[in-house]
Design goal:
By secondary structure, the chain is mainly α. It is 69% helix and 0% strand. 20% of the residues are buried.
């Protein structure tokens, strides 16, 4: 069939355009697949890194928990007491308001004995040079723990001292160990007493507040478990 030159040229142009279009489609498709593959690889890598970091954080937390010191019953108790312990200002205000007690700046055995009597209505004489050990012994008597203190054998004294991380010997330590066991004092205060340190105002006020708690006259005291109306007070 006879075709004009113009028609032949048009067919060549259309064929060339078709080939070019097909080549472009193939290229774009290939690039798209490459991008998808690359994106997949990047996402996979990011997910792996995130998972690794999460696992590392989890591992560090576990190691920290495993290596963390577990507080003993006594240590936990002491930490709780520190957190909720009255400040010296509050202790001084309570003693002044409810017992008309004003502890002097300079420690005096007579003044401390009179303060104990105002709280407990018991005469607790203190003779000789006044130190922390004598203050603690008087507090044990005033709180009604003298009989308990006298029940400690030499072996029990050593066992209890060791538990509180203290060292010492002698019958005069019986009131001190008893005071530790009934929470009148802390191990730190006991150590100072064993060193014959002079009592200061804050120590005396804190000890007097402990005595008040022991005899049911403390700031947060509701009553004894044996009181017939204790459940009504607790509501």
């Amino acid at each position: 069939m006879y075709r004009s030159k113009a028609e032949v040229e048009m067919r060549k142009y259309l064929f060339g355009s078709t080939v070019l279009t097909f080549a472009l489609i193939v290229t774009v498709t290939a690039c798209g697949k490459g991008n998808v593959k690359q994106a997949t690889q990047v996402s996979s890598k990011e997910a792996t890194v995130a998972a690794s970091e999460k696992q590392q954080e989890s591992g560090e937390k576990t190691e920290g928990e495993e290596s963390g010191e577990v507080l003993s019953e006594d240590q936990a108790k002491r930490e709780g007491e520190k957190e909720f312990k009255d400040s010296p200002e509050k202790a001084a205000a309570y003693l002044k308001t409810y017992f008309a007690i004003q502890v002097p700046e300079t420690a005096e055995g007579k003044a401390f004995s009179e303060a104990l009597q105002k709280i407990t209505e018991k005469e607790i004489p203190i003779t000789g040079e006044f130190d922390r050990l004598k203050a603690i012994s008087a507090a044990v008597d005033a709180s009604g723990y003298r009989e308990l203190a006298q029940s400690y054998s030499a072996e029990k004294l050593q066992e209890r001292l060791h538990r509180y991380g203290l060292k010492g010997e002698g019958d005069e330590l019986s009131p001190l160990v008893c005071a530790l066991d009934v929470d009148l004092i802390t191990p730190e205060e006991a150590e100072k007493a064993m060193n014959k340190d002079k009592p200061d105002k804050d120590f005396e006020e804190a000890l007097l507040m402990k005595v008040a708690d022991a005899v049911g006259k403390g700031r947060n005291f509701l009553g004894l478990a044996s009181d017939p109306d204790i459940f009504g007070k607790a509501r």
